[in-house]
Amino acid sequence: MSLVIAMDGPSGSGKSSASKGVARALGLRYLDTGAMYRAMTWWMLEHGVDVEDGEAVAARAGEAALVSGTDPNRPTIEADGTDVSGPIRTREVTNAVSAVSRVPAVRERMVALQREIIGAGGIVVEGRDIGTVVAPDAPVKVYLTASEAARAARRAKDLAADPGASVEVTQAEQARRDELDSTRKASPLAKAADAHEIDSTELSLDEVIEAVVRLAKEQY
Ligand code: C5P
């Protein structure tokens, strides 16, 4: 398999910025699998599906046509031909996504789509189950973490976009999402046994990117 870099970790660990930076530095494609689960969630909400009803979600999991752009400078996601890159970041979608992503039928479909996009490789893939389930043979696996405080501070920056949510509320919502993602039955957030753990709490973004690029270069 040519180069696949699996980047897993909880929300707020800095995965997205680091993954895009690594893809740019190495001239690779980039896939945000979280955006795919968010787009599926957006589609369910848009079609009036009760996201807490796993059977209802499963019954419609095959309907949404999702297309992911893989340019790290301009990652996009389309659902049924509509660019939903903006709408998938709303609080409504963020708070519903864990309920949708725990449904096995949704995960099966997402994993199949993700493997198609990964294809022969040359890509940085970020998510929760990339090193464990989607690409267990990826030659480079990273598990990115950060302290609660650092993750909350990063989230506080995102808050500017949503003045309705306080830091406390956002932190509580993030903790709930991480709890659901880590304890669900179907491919929970987990560190692969052969993943390199990087704690980004004390590192700048460039330092995280450098550390991952170094790991990749050791492989080739
Ligand atoms: O990374 P992001 O915060 O955008 O992910 C949104 C949600 O999508 C996560 O909270 C999780 O429920 C789900 N997800 C997942 N598996 C992945 C990526 C994301 O279950 N590989």
Automatic annotation (TrEMBL):
| An annotated GO BP | nucleobase-containing small molecule interconversion
Report the main location listed first in the record: cytoplasm
- Its Enzyme Commission number(s) read 2.7.4.25
- Give the top-rank taxon of the lineage listed in the UniProt record for this protein: Bacteria
Q: What is this protein called?
A: Cytidylate kinase
> Which compartments does it reside in?
Cytoplasm
The protein's matches in Pfam families, at most eight in alphabetical order, are given as:
Cytidylate_kin (PF02224)
Q: Which PANTHER family does UniProt cross-reference here?
A: CYTIDYLATE KINASE, CYTIDYLATE KINASE/PANTOATE-BETA-ALANINE LIGASE
Instruction: Name the source organism.
Output: Actinomadura harenae
Keyword Cytoplasm in record? yes
Q: Which family does it belong to?
A: Belongs to the cytidylate kinase family. Type 1 subfamily.
Composition bias of kind Basic and acidic residues appears in 174-184
- Residues reported to bind ATP: G9, P10, S11, G12, S13, G14, K15, S16, S17
Keywords assigned by UniProt, alphabetized: ATP-binding, Cytoplasm, Kinase, Nucleotide-binding, Transferase
Cytidylate kinase domain location is: 5-217
A GO molecular function term, named singly, is:
CMP kinase activity
Q: Which InterPro entries match?
A: Cytidylate_kin, Cytidylate_kinase_dom, P-loop_NTPase
- A GO term from the CC aspect: cytosol
Region of interest: Disordered: 157-193
Q: Which reaction does it catalyse?
A: CMP + ATP = CDP + ADP; dCMP + ATP = dCDP + ADP
From the UniProt record, report the name of the gene that encodes this protein: cmk
